[in-house]
Write a structure and sequence with these properties.
Distance between the termini: 56 Å
Strand order of the largest sheet: 15-14-11-12-13-16-23-21
Structural class: alpha+beta
Shape: globular
Number of helices: 16
Number of strands: 40
Radius of gyration: 27 Å
């Protein structure tokens, strides 16, 4: 094991009431590791980062005082490897370990290993982790304390068939959920009996892959559900307080996208009742530190709530609570772990203003939120009054398919909800991540939705709205801008070296520079011709538009910038060219424009094609057929997993299967995985 020392930010040792630790190892990665390191630095505590081979150039590695390599890209061989993380802590003199969220954050075995190594685990006790980490035990525990729970089947001794049979008595729709872990991973909505068996099998496989535990349970799905959670803090001296609630109802595939505090649904009386239920949940397991109790509330009955689970860790969405309460949750995690008592009670907690958070993911909302990836070739993050950005992004960062696709969080605070929404939309328009596809445009469209603006939310809203969102479509001006940027980037104004240019120069009248462009994911090319110079150009798009234009270039800390003026309309584009793809980011919109004449492949399953191609980079985790099997149209063939999300490819025609991969094969986007040869062509 190797580690890279950094220059310490301070030599002071922070002394709390009962425990001293001057070094904390952060057993996580990405934006949460960066965020924890920020608080450690403010307290003068030395920070230790851990990283896999895939994260050698990551932001959290450069921010920490010390960085330790713990293995290859696979999470099982790095961030989930308890022995290596403990050894890294011992080798660097760490006195405590902060697990962040995800990975080992709710793993009782990890907390036990920390205790054995005489390391302070910055989190709750082992019993609380064990009980609340098992959703079946957790529901029984809180139910015994009078906290209402959703009806369901939670018996780990049942076989798959017995579990399915028992669940049928609950009625549909149902949710199949892993008992361990969280974040929506492994969760499946089942609306008919025909879907149930497959959902159980998939949920078990995903739970085992993500959390190392394939125990699942099933509960009744609440109609028009709203997801509301309560932040709690508890010290070692019997004080437990709640810091208000967060509304987390805007989700896709059971994964939160936008969160806010406080909820626009609850009145003061319900807020007090749900807060006390959260505190009672924490008291039931002798909880200490920061935790979140999640409830489900029907939009039709906002005064009724049901316990779902307790997350025994920091939450992704903790910044909105910090902004409305003024309390640094990471600092209090550290202080409580060091034996300090809370210096405030419930009466001192005040919620001021409104905060909303948007998660930026490496994913493509136009293609069912499939994960993307690549290298960040340009970057600008939002700034301004009331704006906070928690981010792992840096220019040059390689976004891997090995981990969760979340890249950053943009958070806005204002005195009221309308002001917070307006600030967040403005911040998203400022956000530019060049080189990879993100969900920034989608977030802006979602925040502009009338029901979102009015606070009429539920967990199915995104699914209902997705097909109606007005995603931008390419027009002639976009293709003209792209051609101008390519034309001018290759321009050589040195008259003594005309033969080295590629801008149409020749003796006599200039020839046009010709480009054949297409927006990535489409199947039609657009011919564009450019004459003249970057300072005075004429552009013809597909023979249907002839435009007068100019283009100017500049370099900023965020990458290359081009300002094009076409027919007196000026647009600033952040751009880069990589592998024959021109990446443009403009006012919250991101475009990937292919410059070659080769038409891109259609995504697998988009039409009836015999080839099954991977819709995303990842790994083959399951194959449901044997090579040479005859299958019907719609038969399940192969499962590809990336960033903890599974995608099932089905046969788009009846025929005989010819497999090109095996389980475990690492695949790229658009790679042929199998061919279903129609029987009538044999």
């Amino acid at each position: 094991m190797t580690f890279v020392p950094r220059s310490p930010k301070t030599s002071d040792t922070v002394q709390f009431d009962t425990v001293q630790f001057d070094t904390v190892l952060v057993a996580n990665r990405g934006e949460i590791a960066c965020r924890i390191i920020r608080t450690l630095r403010s307290l003068g505590i030395r920070s230790v980062a851990v990283y896999s081979d895939a994260d050698a150039g990551a932001r959290h590695v450069s921010l920490a005082d010390v960085a330790v390599r713990i293995g290859i890209a696979s999470a099982a061989d790095s961030y989930l490897n308890i022995a290596r993380i403990i050894q890294a802590a011992l080798d660097t003199g760490a006195g405590a370990v902060h697990p962040g969220y995800g990975f080992l954050a709710e793993n009782a075995e990890f907390a036990r290993a920390c205790a054995t190594a005489d390391l302070v685990f910055i989190g709750p006790g082992i019993e609380a982790l064990a009980v609340m980490g098992d959703k079946i035990r957790a529901k029984r525990q809180v139910s015994n304390r009078g906290v209402p729970v959703v009806p369901g089947v939670a018996d780990p001794s049942l076989s798959d068939s017995e579990l399915a049979a028992a669940a049928l008595a609950l009625g549909f729709p149902l949710l199949v959920k892993p008992s361990a872990g969280g974040g929506g991973k492994g969760m499946h909505l089942v609306e008919t009996g025909e879907q149930l068996d497959e959902a159980i099998v998939s949920a078990r496989r995903e739970a085992l892959s993500s959390f190392g535990d394939d125990t699942i349970f099933i509960e009744r799905f609440i109609a028009r559900p709203r997801h509301i959670e309560v932040q709690v803090l508890a010290d070692n001296f019997g004080t437990t307080v709640h810091l208000g609630e967060r509304e987390c109802s805007l989700q896709r595939r059971h994964q939160k996208v936008i969160e806010e505090a406080p909820s626009p649904l609850l009145d003061a009386a319900t807020r007090a009742r749900i807060g006390e239920a959260a505190c009672e949940t924490a008291r039931s397991v002798g909880y200490r530190g920061a935790g979140t109790v999640e409830f489900i509330v029907s939009a039709d009955a906002p005064d009724e709530f049901f316990f779902m689970e307790m997350n025994t860790r920091l939450q992704v969405e903790h910044p909105v609570t910090e902004l409305v309460t003024g309390i640094d949750l990471v600092e209090w995690q550290l202080r409580i772990a060091a034996g300090e008592a809370l210096d405030f009670g419930q009466a001192e907690v005040r919620l001021t203003g409104h905060a909303i958070e948007a998660r930026i993911y490496a994913e493509d909302p136009r293609c069912g939120f499939l994960p993307t990836g690549g290298r960040v070739l340009g970057l600008h993050e939002a700034q301004g009054e009331g704006i906070r950005v928690d981010s792992s992004l840096t220019r040059g960062l390689e976004v891997s398919a090995d981990y969760d696709p979340m890249l950053a969080k943009v958070i806005a605070w204002a005195p009221d909800r309308a002001g917070s929404l307006a600030r967040l939309r403005g911040a998203l328009r400022q956000t530019r991540v060049v080189g990879i596809t993100t969900n920034v445009e989608f977030l802006g469209l979602l925040l502009a939705d009338a029901d979102v603006a009015a606070g009429r939310l539920d967990t199915e809203l995104i699914a209902r709205r997705l097909d109606t969102l007005a995603f931008a479509t390419p027009d002639d001006e976009l293709f003209a801008r792209a051609a101008l940027i390519l034309f001018s980037a290759n321009w050589n104004s040195d008259a003594e070296k005309p033969w080295q240019t590629h801008n149409g120069w020749r003796i006599g009248a200039p020839a046009p520079s010709m480009f054949r462009l297409m927006v990535d994911g489409t199947d039609s090319e657009v011919p564009v011709a450019v004459w003249g110079t970057p300072q005075r150009a004429t552009v013809s798009v597909a023979g249907r538009s002839t435009l007068n234009a100019t283009v100017e270039h500049a370099e900023t800390g965020g990458g290359s910038v081009a300002r094009t003026t076409i027919s007196n309309r000026s647009v600033q584009s952040h751009w880069c060219l990589s592998n024959d793809i021109l990446h443009l980011v403009e006012d919250g919109l991101s475009w990937a424009i292919r410059t070659s004449t080769k038409a891109p492949r259609l995504l697998a399953n988009s039409v009836s094609m015999p080839e099954l191609r991977s819709p995303m980079p990842g790994a083959v985790v399951a194959i449901h057929v044997q090579d040479g099997d005859e299958v019907d149209e719609g038969a399940a063939i192969i499962v590809v997993e990336a960033m903890k999300m599974e995608h099932l490819l089905r046969a788009t025609t009846a025929g005989r299967v010819e497999l090109q991969v095996t389980v475990g094969t690492q695949v790229t986007r658009d790679q042929v995985l199998a061919t279903v040869v129609p029987l009538d062509v044999d």
